[in-house]
Design a protein that fits this description.
Layout (H helix, E strand, L loop, with lengths): L1 H23 L4 H22 L6 H4 L1 H17 L6 H26 L4 H22 L14 H16 L4 H22 L15
Helix pairs in contact: 1-2, 1-4, 1-5, 2-4, 2-6, 5-6, 5-7, 5-8, 6-7, 7-8
């Protein structure tokens, strides 16, 4: 039940993120629903296919499709002025990231994967929907942008969950800790301007 709740919450929050970006790009109701659905379900579908959970719950359980559609409708109807969306999109995206990485890590761990593969798959679950969203609106995915701290917080949150499960920490506790690590790190990076390490410029020297 906990895994289902995390999945549906992550799907809804990511759906809002996708819907807001669609509105900001002046898409119509169809575009908003498509982007919300692709963002909400992209990472989970990839996770389930990789661990052999077929047919994926997103295709077998109506609630998985209802969540992003509801997020798209709510976003389309209640969005404020388009010019204020950027900050809201980033906040929803950060919370969606936290929920998805822990859900992905837990499901991968329950499928019998080792700690490292489970953590990697958890991070893929978190970033997959965002990549699909960005590609559909024709922008460089957040995970690949110059210096963006996105994949690192995702992997850290997933790693905390997997390590916690390995040492016997209660699932209901460790999922909230892992989500807080991923979402909190991502939000701090946005507010404080933290970036991922970059290579030295060609021709520079130093120790």
């Amino acid at each position: 039940m906990l895994l289902l709740t995390l999945d549906l919450l992550g799907i809804f929050v990511f759906g809002v993120s996708g819907g807001l970006l669609a509105v900001r790009n002046q898409l119509d109701i169809v575009g908003v629903l498509v982007l919300a659905t692709a963002t909400g379900l992209g990472g989970g579908l990839l996770r389930d296919v990789l661990i052999g959970a077929v047919p994926p719950p997103a295709l077998a359980d109506w609630r998985y499709l209802a969540a992003p559609v509801a997020a798209g409708v709510v976003t389309f109807v209640w969005h404020p002025a388009v010019g204020r969306f950027e900050r809201v999109i980033n906040v929803f995206d950060a919370f969606g990231l936290g929920m998805f990485v822990v859900a992905g890590a837990v499901k991968a761990h329950e499928a019998g994967l080792g700690p490292v593969p489970a953590a990697v798959l958890g991070s893929i679950t978190g970033v997959g929907g965002g990549v699909v969203r960005d590609v559909l609106v024709g922008r460089i995915p957040t995970i690949l942008r110059h210096g963006e701290l996105y994949a690192i917080p995702a992997l850290a949150g997933a790693g905390v969950v997997v390590l916690g499960l390995e040492v016997g920490v209660a699932q209901v506790v460790i999922v909230f800790v892992g989500a807080a690590v991923a979402s909190g790190w991502r939000l701090l990076a946005l507010t404080r301007g933290w970036t991922a390490p970059l290579p030295r410029a060609a021709g520079t020297s130093g120790s």
